[in-house]
Design brief:
The complex is a heterodimer of chains A (390) and B (257). Chain A is an alpha/beta fold. Chain A has 2 domains: 253 residues, no CATH class; 118 residues, D-Maltodextrin-Binding Protein, domain 2, CATH 3.40.190. In chain A, 67% of the residues lie in helices and 7% in strands. Chain A contains 15 helices and 6 strands. In chain A, strands 1, 2, 3, 4, 5 and 6 form a 6-stranded mixed sheet that branches. Chain A is elongated. With 257 residues, chain B is of the alpha/beta class. Chain B has 2 domains: 178 residues, P-loop containing nucleotide triphosphate hydrolases (Rossmann fold, 3-Layer(aba) Sandwich), CATH 3.40.50; 67 residues, no CATH class. Chain B is built from 10 helices and 10 strands. The two termini of chain B are 35 Å apart. Classes of the chains: A alpha/beta (390), B alpha/beta (257). Chains A and B meet through helix 1 and helix 8 of A and helix 3 and helix 4 of B.
């Protein structure tokens, strides 16, 4: 045990006394995540923008819905339009001159004032046309849809929004808030992987390449002590790198979601933040041991980096998998699949569909995989063909 | 005098790659590095393993240092088996070869402490030993300079100090003076003589005849993984110079085979 600590102390000294390593693995990931996410958030939640919206069969009740409570200026400028101009307006939405077209039912005011409860299916419909590739058009659509949805329930379903009746006027279908929730697990994985890549090959393949590991092997310490010391210190350093990424993600989330910090706190409970962090740690342990195994097979750092590329591609592919298969709703055995379970749990957390059972299965199974991989690595360190394959 | 190092019938083969197999024309795909090698070194003597490149000297020393395992046979250091009690063997040997490197990033001072701790020494013992060895080899002057910035000779001195930090009873040096200038080489050979005076058992491998003549009490000539001749310098030389005697032995062994 004492030897494990001695090894760890040396690994930490190696890391913290090297400014480039500290900058590259501890400071940059957090700063980069924060910068990228904040930039993305600002681009999609530009509150100073005003939207030009054409309205067919305009009504005063509709316009009132968008008036701000404090009498401030609305971000929408509504312009009346005739139904037969719809095609021309759609064209100007595509060209970016107009942000959206809302087609209200005739005598919308009267329907609301009448206050009759209509059987579902017969309620008058509202259609919204927009272009999701135009940022401002897409934000206008989101804003109008959310206001209308809120009023829909308030008015007791006097009208219904026909989301399919209107339409996205772009061919690019994928673009929504959900989309970014899907992107986050991938980005987190990318940053974690690069954090591990910055230190693990250097510490194992590098020591082999430079012949310094042999100097350790002629001391009376056990090979297993050396392996455990290495894995623990590399994981601790990678966890620090993960903490950096985590802080970056945490601080930029409110901006990304277009909310204040308070709202973000409300959106994710303390438990979910803890879960996110715990999942990140198991991800780091898993990635560190995998890269360490590849590094001990390699003769040099360069070779180790080459070996790690297929693994990286695999991890990245799994990272984007949540975009294709979606988050949540997966059966529990899915959470036994390493890496994929990490992506799924993160996607569940980001899309507010967190499941404690899935989280626990993920953490437990990943820890079992890590222990098995560490045992394998200790066996490899005992094998002269692997440790001296120069 | 008792035998501190005993090697009994050591066999060691290495797997050849497909390419090497063609060159060596070996059907089995294995190269025999050590072919039943036996010898022993006594307490308080310097034993020299002499042989051409590829004879198996380094392989033998690596087996003694427990870095690699023999296929068959066993060796004992201070009575501990290298195959069964590797950790005990490692705690009583000092092993020095040009293949064991020190991390460029650290200072000699830091590395000395680090290896002292891995050897299970307490801080006071490490500090005391550091003062002795650093002043003896003149490491004081560059103890705070990163190993990467040191010259070859300086590095070798640091490696030497680190390898004997725990005052081992058995010292195993592979080509101890290779690549060193005469001054540094003398530091090493003087050190070996001094260790012998203190009653340590020393085994060195080399292909430098003058080094063997000057230092070694007994010598074993290894050719093709086999012990071709063994004994004191006088016994092996039979009145000739060591160089001439070696050529005779070499001719006899290779032609006889």
């Amino acid at each position: 045990m004492k030897n494990v600590l001695t090894i760890m102390r040396k690994e930490f000294a190696r890391f913290f006394k090297d400014k480039r390593l500290v900058l590259g693995t501890l400071i940059l990931p957090g700063v980069l995540i924060f910068a990228v996410y904040t930039l993305m958030g600002s681009a999609f939640n530009d509150s100073t923008q005003t939207y030009t919206v054409k309205v067919v069969h305009s009504s005063s009740a509709f316009v009132q819905m968008f008036e701000t409570g404090d009498g401030g200026e609305s971000v929408f400028s509504f312009e009346e339009a005739e139904e037969e101009d719809a095609d021309a307006i759609c064209e100007s939405i595509r060209s970016g001159d107009v942000d959206a077209l809302v087609v209200l039912p005739e005598n919308f005011d009267a329907i609301l004032a009448g206050g009759q409860f209509l059987p579902s299916g017969s309620a008058p419909e509202i259609q919204i046309f927009y272009d999701s590739t135009e940022t401002s058009s897409y934000s206008a659509y989101n804003a109008i849809a959310s206001v209308l949805t809120a009023f829909e329930s308030a008015y007791g379903s006097l009208y219904s929004i026909n989301f399919t009746g209107g339409g996205d006027l772009t061919s690019a279908q994928e673009a929504s808030a959900e989309y970014y929730a899907m992107l986050l697990p991938f980005l987190v994985l990318v940053f974690l992987y690069s954090g591990c890549m910055g230190i693990a090959p250097e510490s194992i393949a590098g020591e082999k390449e430079r012949g310094t590991i042999a100097t350790l092997l002629v001391t009376p310490i056990r090979r297993s002590e050396l392996v455990v010391g290495k894995i623990l210190s590399l994981s601790a350093l990678s966890v620090l790198s993960a903490v950096s990424s985590f802080i970056g993600t945490f601080l930029s989330l409110p901006k990304l979601m277009g909310q204040g910090y308070g709202d973000a706190f409300a959106a994710y409970s303390v438990g979910q933040y803890f879960a996110l962090f715990a999942v990140m740690i198991t991800a780091v342990l898993l990635i560190v041991t995998l890269i360490s195994i590849l590094s001990s097979l390699a003769r040099s750092v360069k070779e180790a980096t080459t070996y790690a590329v297929p693994l990286m591609i695999l991890v990245m592919l799994v990272g984007v998998s949540s975009m294709f298969f979606g988050a949540g709703g997966a059966a529990w055995p899915v959470f036994l699949i390493p890496v994929y379970n990490i992506v799924q749990v993160m996607a569940e957390i980001f899309s507010l569909r967190f499941s404690v059972v899935h989280f626990l299965i993920t953490v437990a199974s990943n820890l079992v995989y890590v222990v098995l991989l560490v045992l394998l690595l200790a066996k490899m360190f005992n094998n002269e063909k692997i440790i001296f394959n120069k | 005098m008792k035998d501190s190092i005993v090697a009994e019938n050591i066999y060691k083969t290495f797997t050849l790659s497909a390419k090497q197999r063609k060159i060596e024309k070996s059907a089995s795909g294995r190269k025999v590095a050590l072919d039943g090698l036996s010898f022993s070194a006594r307490e308080g003597e310097i034993y020299g393993l002499l042989g051409p490149n590829g004879a198996g000297k380094t392989t033998m020393l690596r087996i003694l240092a427990t870095l690699i395992r023999a296929d068959r046979g066993d060796a004992y250091i201070m009575g501990h088996s290298v195959t069964k009690e590797a950790e005990k063997v490692r705690s009583c040997i000092g092993f020095l070869t040009s293949e064991l490197k020190l991390e460029d990033f650290f200072t000699p001072d830091y590395l000395f402490d680090f290896f002292g701790r891995l050897r299970g020494m307490d801080e006071d013992a490490i500090a005391l030993r550091k003062r002795t060895l650093f002043s003896k080899f003149g490491i004081d002057l560059f103890s705070q300079v990163k190993v990467g910035d040191l010259s070859t000779g300086m590095k070798q001195k640091v490696s030497l100090a680190v390898s004997i930090i725990h005052d081992p009873a058995v010292i195993i040096f592979d080509e101890p003076t290779n690549g060193l200038d005469v001054l540094t080489a003398k530091v090493v050979t003087d050190f070996l003589s001094e260790m012998k005076e203190q009653g340590k058992t020393i085994i060195v491998s080399t292909h430098i005849f003058s080094l063997v003549e000057k230092l070694c009490d007994r010598v074993g000539v290894i050719i093709g993984g086999k012990m071709a001749a063994e004994g004191t310098i006088e016994e092996v030389c039979c009145g000739k110079t060591l160089e001439d005697a070696f050529f005779d032995i070499y001719k006899r062994t290779v032609q006889g085979a």
